[in-house]
Amino acid sequence: MAATKKIAIEVFTPDYWEDARKHLTKKDRVMKRLIPAFGDACLESRGDAFTTLARSIVGQQISVKAAQTVWDRFAGLPRRMTPANVLKLKVDDMRASGLSARKIEYLVDLALHFDSGAVSAGNWQSMDDDAIIAELVGIRGIGRWTAEMFLIFHLMRPNVLPLDDVGLISGISKNYFSGDPVSRSDAREVAAAWAPYCSVATWYIWRSLDPLPVAY
Fold first, then answer.
1. In angstroms, rounded to a whole number, what is the distance separating the alpha carbons of residues 101 and 81?
2. 3-state secondary structure 125-188
3. Are residue 51 and residue 147 in the same domain, yes or no?
4. Where is the signal peptide (predicted)?
5. Count: domains in the chain
6. CA 44/CA 15 separation, integer angstroms
7. Mean pLDDT of successive 10-residue segments in the chain (216 residues)?
8. Which domain holds residue 85?
């Protein structure tokens, strides 16, 4: 993991961001246009690993706005967002916050993994991206997409390319192919110029679709 610097209470930003902006501006015509449009805004990591993964589960298959609404309701249920506190919540209260039965099952399984020590969160800083993904997908409800969101938004790994992300594919279509359909192969070809900062380029593609910063 790249070093990070703390910029506010419980909010971190990657120290590689400026280098990434320069690299992408030089290597990619679309990034040269997009990056200046968003000023000094950048990726931020807030909260702990459990909270980040829980937010990712809540956000699956719904819009950024809808996910924020459901998360705000859910996060208001426990006094503090911890695995142990989530395990104490009533299913009816979780359903009332807007969570589906399946997402409730996923959140409970996530809490159980953290509460029991079944995941090696303390070792993630020293593990490579693929090893972390392999461990995370062992938790119910966490597929490759969710694991990649965790790599980007919590560990702030610089070179993650989430090809299963609808927003990324849509944004590549809009910005590089005039709205024409885009295959995973097309996306990889575009992203070849982004390396080793695919996470950063992906963040700017998301912003091009929705000025509201994506956060987990």
1. 19
2. HHCCHHHHHHHHCCCCCCCHHHHHHHHHHCCCCCCCCCCCCHHHHHHHHHHHCCCCCCCHHHHH
3. yes
4. none
5. 2
6. 11
7. 47 91 97 94 86 89 87 94 96 97 96 91 91 93 91 94 94 96 96 98 94 68
8. 47-153
CA distance 62 to 181: 21
Strands (E), the chain: 4-8, 11-14, 45-46
Q: Residue 55: CB partners within 8 Å, gap ≥ 6?
A: 47, 67, 71, 215, 216
Which residues, 6+ apart, have CB-to-CB distance to 11 below 8 Å? 44, 45, 46
For 117: left if phi > 0, alpha if psi spans -120 to 50, otherwise beta; the answer is: left
What CA–CA distance (Å, rounded) separates 87 from 107?
9
Q: What are the tokens at 35? A: 């990056």
